[in-house]
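Researcher: I'd like a candidate sequence for this fold, 135 residues long. If you have to choose between options at a position, lean toward the conservative one.
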């Protein structure tokens, strides 16, 4: 039993004792079981409230974590969409060696027949003689 309900029960019991001493035991005979039932219900409600408070706090923590995760994924999706919209055409016969170039960031390594998606070129220069050099 919670301290609060115990304190109430002790106060009520003292008042019942006073009534029995002043009058008769029969004065509280019918009232005593009702008060005990009320105190037990109050104690159970107090316990239920504590459990609900704990559950509420856990749900708030879960909600905060989910919101943080949602915001991160939303930002990642925006970044991924921006990167996927960036593509460039590779001329026939042109070889691009991305593994040797630290200036390219692989995002979605999918290569089509004439278009390379998923790499962000930071710097591509013309080579004398008509070719291109990465760098």
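Model: Candidate sequence:
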């Amino acid at each position: 039993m919670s301290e609060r309900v115990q304190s109430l029960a002790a106060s009520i019991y003292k008042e019942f004792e006073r009534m029995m001493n002043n009058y008769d035991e029969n004065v509280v005979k019918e009232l005593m079981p009702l008060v005990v039932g009320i105190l037990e219900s109050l104690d159970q409600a107090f316990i239920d409230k504590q459990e609900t408070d704990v559950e509420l706090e856990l749900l708030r923590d879960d909600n905060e974590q989910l919101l943080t995760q949602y915001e991160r994924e939303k930002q990642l999706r925006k970044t991924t969409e921006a990167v996927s919209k960036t593509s460039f055409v590779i001329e026939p016969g042109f070889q691009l060696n991305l593994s040797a170039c630290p200036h390219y960031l692989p995002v979605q390594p999918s290569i089509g027949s004439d278009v390379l998606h998923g790499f962000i070129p930071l710097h591509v220069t013309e080579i004398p003689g008509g070719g291109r050099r990465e760098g």
